[in-house]
Design a protein that fits this description.
The complex is a heterodimer of chains A (312) and B (287). Chain A is mostly helical and 312 residues long. Helix content of chain A is 67%, strand content 0%. Chain A folds into 2 domains: 62 residues, no CATH class; 237 residues, MetI-like (MetI-like fold, Orthogonal Bundle). The chains are: A mainly alpha (312), B mainly alpha (287). Chains A and B meet through helix 3, helix 4, helix 5, helix 6 and helix 8 of A and helix 1, helix 4, helix 5, helix 6 and helix 7 of B.
Chain lengths: 312, 287
């Protein structure tokens, strides 16, 4: 990925384009193109310094020892059972919340089918979804502490009115399971945003054709609707997966004592950089995250191509 | 309603209402709980407005000093990030569109990179960069603005791009140049006025993203609104919940404004009204 971050051709691509013949005219055009390329310099420099350089550092720091020499020793962290369990938990959390989020979100999209986009209900649902898909981090953590924290409204209500103690086996909100509900709170709205347009590609004519040919509502969904939507559904699921997998702030605000997921392990590694033998573990973990993200994104691109087949 | 034939794919009215009501109610629970939480009276166990009143009490300012610092820093940082968008991204996008249209895809690709790089990964690379900045320039909060300018690129680019595509910037540029305008003259007198809706949307989303940012600030040891809220939560959870609620409403209004602007932009585009493909880059929040 980083190789593509290189400068957007400060004149070089223009030179290649016009420099085929060595005539005086094209040479002046080269000069002109190079001159015009100067306009790209500020952006190129900025992106190089603050995007390309940090990305390269994040990539290579896993292969460096404390003195900056090259080593593969850090990679042994990936064999550490604790780290492996953390990566497993991260994958599990991201997969679970994106699967549930995708199903619930798709249900909402189904409920909104056939609704005129200009209707108030439709506008409200999409607006709320775009707000909540953005709602994350510290404030989301507080919302859930106020809801199902030890003194949260729902906890108190269930304990006082119904005699149900949701924490009788211990307080799980500040551990891995406690992340599921807050994550769903941004995954479901995100699913609504990305899946609603896909639902709209189901054409009315197909439903009519199905009815004309003697099909029922059920056969429309089993034979036409679901098979056509499946690639988009998988694509949306993968987007939700990358979203859940890379989330940090919500978990950081909720969980202080432990580091059950990879982003929190990176926090631990960054804040305890001096612990012997753990230098640059953050780099290895970052590398592992990038690899997983890249796989998910590649799958997404693959699925997306298939989903595009039925678009007009 | 009755004039139009019923959409053959639409679910039954009752089904629609039940699904939306149940899921809507579930999503309202945390918001309602936040409101209830801020109204609690720790002494009597009843409900009171005292908590809210104490937010504005005379001695409150010093108690919640870190929050005010956080808000001030977040304001400063959003101004910095907005400056990056206005002074670097906007001119570059216009310039590429006019002079190097073939590079427009490359530019888009670069701007979208921060979406596939989790902030927690990026921060691993930023730590040494900011150690260097700390040694040479200082550890003041404003330098974080450079990193924030990067993380807002995908959002700002998208807001500007749809506007750029809609106005036919190349033709405008040829017209401007024919009439003898200089490059900067063209940018200032022709491009910017035509890009008003895209620029406003880009600025608003930039401010929203910066105000919600936590990962970089917390791991690079700078104070912004989110890290301040996280700190004050240990002293007084009521305050952090109350301020979260207030800023949630503020962000809600801000994003509603953005989505409103987005709609205006969509209406102006000249693209045929085909269904939008599943967006490859949903707005990812700041979690």
């Amino acid at each position: 990925m980083t190789s593509l971050v290189t400068p957007p051709g400060t004149g070089s691509s223009g030179t290649r384009r016009s420099g085929t013949r060595g005539t005086a005219r094209s040479r002046s055009r080269i000069a002109l193109t190079a001159g015009r390329g100067v306009g790209l310099l500020p952006f190129t420099l900025y992106v190089l310094l603050f995007l390309a350089v940090p990305t390269v550092i994040a990539l290579v720091s896993g292969f460096q020892d404390a003195d900056g020499g090259w080593t593969l020793d850090n990679l042994s962290a990936l064999g550490d059972p604790l780290i492996l369990r953390t990566i497993g938990s991260s994958l599990w959390l991201a997969a679970l919340t994106s699967l549930l989020g995708a199903i619930i979100g798709a249900l909402v999209c189904f409920a909104m089918m056939g609704l005129d986009e200009t209707r108030l209900l439709s506008r409200v649902v999409t607006s709320i979804s775009s707000v909540l898909a953005q709602f994350g981090g510290v404030m989301l953590a507080f919302a859930f502490i106020a809801t199902i924290g030890i003194q949260g409204a729902i906890t108190v209500f269930l304990r006082g009115e119904l005699g149900i103690d949701i924490y009788q086996d211990g307080v799980w909100l500040y551990e891995l399971p406690g992340l599921i509900l807050p994550y769903l709170y941004f995954q479901v709205p995100l699913m609504i945003i990305v899946f609603l347009p896909a639902m709209k590609t189901l054409r009315v004519q197909w439903a009519e054709a199905n009815l004309t040919l003697g099909g029922t509502r059920l056969t429309f969904w089993t034979r036409i609707g679901l098979p056509l939507l499946f690639p988009s559904f998988v694509g949306s699921f993968l987007l939700l997966f990358t979203n859940g997998f890379s989330a940090y702030s919500t978990a950081a605000a909720l969980i202080n004592q432990a580091s059950p997921i990879v982003p929190l392990q990176i926090r631990l590694a960054l804040s305890s950089e001096t612990v012997l033998g753990r230098e640059n573990v953050a780099g290895v973990l970052a590398l592992a995250m990038m690899v997983i993200m890249a796989v998910a994104m590649a799958l997404y691109a693959l699925v997306q191509r298939r989903a595009a087949r039925w678009r007009i | 309603m009755s004039a139009k034939p019923r959409h053959p794919l639409a679910p039954a009215r009752a089904t629609r209402i039940i699904i939306l009501a149940v899921i809507g109610a579930l999503f309202a629970v945390p918001i309602a709980s936040m409101v209830e939480f801020t109204l609690r009276d720790p002494q009597t166990g009843g409900h009171t407005l005292n908590n809210w009143a104490s937010l504005f009490a005379p001695d409150a300012a010093s108690t919640y000093e870190v929050v005010w610092t956080g808000i001030g820093n977040s304001l400063l940082l959003s101004a910095f990030a907005v400056a990056v968008v206005l002074l670097i991204l906007v001119p570059t996008m216009v310039y590429v569109e006019v002079e190097f249209p073939r590079l427009s895809r490359v530019l888009e690709f670069i701007c979208l990179i921060p979406l596939s790089l989790p902030a927690i990964v990026l921060v691993v690379g930023y730590v040494p960069v900011y150690q260097f900045i700390g040694r040479t320039v200082g550890t003041d909060v404003w330098s974080l603005g450079f990193a924030y300018g990067i993380i807002v690129l995908p959002f700002a680019h998208r807001a500007l791009k749809s506007n750029l595509d809609a106005i036919g910037i190349r033709v405008l540029s040829e017209a401007g140049r024919t009439l003898g305008d200089s490059w900067f003259g063209f940018l200032w007198r022709v491009a910017v006025p035509n890009l008003r809706s895209g620029i406003s949307a880009a600025v608003l989303i930039t401010v929203a993203v910066v105000f919600g940012e936590f990962t970089l600030a917390s791991l690079l040891n700078r104070t912004n609104l989110q890290t301040a809220l996280n700190i004050i939560n240990w002293q007084n959870p009521f305050v952090s919940v109350a301020i979260s609620l207030v800023s949630l409403i503020a962000v809600f209004l801000l994003l509603l404004a953005v989505s409103g602007l987005g709609r205006v932009g969509v209406r102006r585009t000249r693209r045929p009204a085909t269904p939008t493909p599943v967006s490859p880059t949903p707005l990812r929040g700041t979690r």
